[in-house]
Specification:
The chain is an alpha+beta fold. It is built from two helices and five strands; from the N terminus they run βαβββαβ. Bound molecules: FE2/S2 (inorganic) cluster.
Length: about 120
């Protein structure tokens, strides 16, 4: 199982200072949840602030014993959500969480901000 954790409090840079607007992270969570609805082995949850506030919207893709990937600078919507879910399904199918670059959906390229190894060992890269 791979989980996509969506920051629900993210605001895109151009709108970050306007606190009268709903955070775009809420729309991102809705879009990712809809895209993942029928996809096996991918779950979605929301949480406040992943500490990448300068480049919202942010998400983390993780699974037990696997590499975690943090991605940001997404505009909320179906296009980003579908790319993230496609990537998460490949992460779920990988023993280490590694997805070969040639298999990355176009929509995730240029959005990676961090890769975090699992606590229980360092996978071969
Ligand atoms: S508000 Fe989304 S990372 Fe901080």
């Amino acid at each position: 199982m791979t989980t996509i954790t969506v920051c629900t409090t993210c605001r895109q840079p151009a709108l970050r200072d306007d606190k009268t607007r709903t955070p775009c992270g809420e729309a991102m969570l809705a879009a990712v949840s809809a895209a993942a609805e029928a996809v096996p082995d991918v779950s979605v949850r929301g949480t406040a602030c992943l500490m990448g506030c300068e480049h919202g919207c942010n998400v983390a893709i993780s699974g037990a014993g696997k590499l975690t990937y943090v991605l940001g600078a997404f505009a909320p919507g179906a296009e980003a959500a579908e790319a993230l879910v496609e990537y998460a399904a490949k992460h779920a199918a990988s023993a280490s969480g590694t997805v070969p670059y040639r298999e990355w959906p176009q929509g995730v390229k240029g959005h990676f901000t961090a890769r975090v190894p699992p606590l229980d060992g360092l996978p071969e890269l």
